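Researcher: Please predict.
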Amino acid sequence: MTHRQVEGQQVGKHPMVTRLMQGIYNKRPPTPRYSSTWDVRLVTSYIKGLGRNDLLDLKQLSLKLTMLMALVSANRSSELAALDLRFRQVIPSKCLLCSRKERQVHLRRNYSLGHMKRIMTCVSYSA
């Protein structure tokens, strides 16, 4: 939808409107979305320190996989929880996972986890 012009100019480009918007911005500048963040290096160094996957128990391996997936996919926790291992497919270069969130198979979102060069942080490596 287009607004009518004001004094021959688009509303958003009119000098009075732009000055008003600048004043609003200066009076209440935008605030950061998050008040604090965390250092990803702490997590990745901990994961590297866990050692080889074949030496981890199931809980450690599950937590390692979950954290690495969260870091690389930037998905919500609900999307990660919706992944269904019954629909996984492991091929030489990667592992494919499918979400069970969508009832119809053709609408399900697929996740691809490729092998990483650094063995200690690779989710699919085992000796």
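Model: The first strand starts at residue 83 and ends at 91.
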